[in-house]
Amino acid sequence: MLFYVVHCCIGIVQVGWLYGSVAEDILTGLNIHGRGWKSVVCSPDPLAFLGCAPPTLVSSLTQQKRWADGVLEILFSDKNPLLLTIKGNLWFRQALAYYWICLWGPRSIPELCYASLPAYCIITGSHFLPKINERPIIIHVGIFIIYNAYFFWECKRQGMSLHMWWNLQKMGRVTSMTAWLFGFLNVMLKLVGLSKSVFEITQKEYKSIDGDDDNNVGRFTYNTSPMIIPGVFILFVNMIALVNGVLRLLKVDYNDIWMEVLGLGLGEMFCSVWVMVCFWEFLKGLFGNGKYGIPYPSIWKSGVLAFFFVHLCRSFSQPFWIR
User: Fold this and answer.
1) What is the DSSP code string of 162-223?
2) Could you read off the pLDDT of 115-148 as tens digits, one per residue?
3) Alpha-carbon span 186 to 307, nearest angstrom
4) Residue 274 DSSP SS3
5) How far from chain centre, in Å, is Cα 210?
6) Which of 16, 33, 10, 17 is closest to 80 using CA atoms?
7) Which of 23, 51, 71, 105 has the fewest CB atoms within 10 Å, counting from its CB?
8) What is the pTM of this model?
């Protein structure tokens, strides 16, 4: 292993640390691998390198936005993993791994669509899942359980706790629908000449925790950053959908028409609840005070977008000759 670590370090010396990108570490590693050099994960005990993480939600999202912006730009350069596979010495499976990272930004679009899909189905009375009294629902439930169980097993194998696993779940959804979305939009604006590359410095600091701060460990802090708006929007549309679904359930006579209850989209309602739980900190932020509360401008902007979404859902659910 020592040989391979030295081998990779020599590659960095010969290639040099590449700049001109806001994701210079990925670009440098890609260039080294493209020349046929090998690398391994080196994790000594005790750890050799430690750093400070962003202390707030917005600074963390700013960092994730910069990463999503930088890695996506690589795909539009001569360091594209596919080009290095064809012309260089990059292995195809290495190229797939790099593509998984470089496509963080575009991934935000399907993430937003999937997070809005349960709400759309509940509001319009449609379905994207089988009814709970139909056998195919077992396939979807099984995939959900197996995926989360496997992810939890991976975390446990790395020594992580159940709390850390759940934090990764929540932040995975929050980051992909907020920071990565703005990173993707920023790259698109650059491609059409409406924006320029700007290196946004991430706020990092080390603070000892004592006194009143101990009660607020892990709480999100907010400001007027537009990256908060997509998260609040997703929360609002799912809240509206759940209220719509509950009101529909209350109108059902459970003694006579159980089959109608089973067809009311309970699977979609579960998915909507799951999305809301992932954005639970945003829900707490709606009722928070000071830096722990979401600013009113972000709330009303998200509310307008949510109202527009619900209006579109109800419009599209009607036949065109009734609109």
Assistant:
1) HHHHHHHHHHHHHHHHTHHHHHHHHHHHHHTTS-----PPPP-------GGGGGGTT-----
2) 999 999 888 888 888 887 788 889 999 999 999 9
3) 26
4) helix
5) 31
6) 33
7) 51
8) 0.83
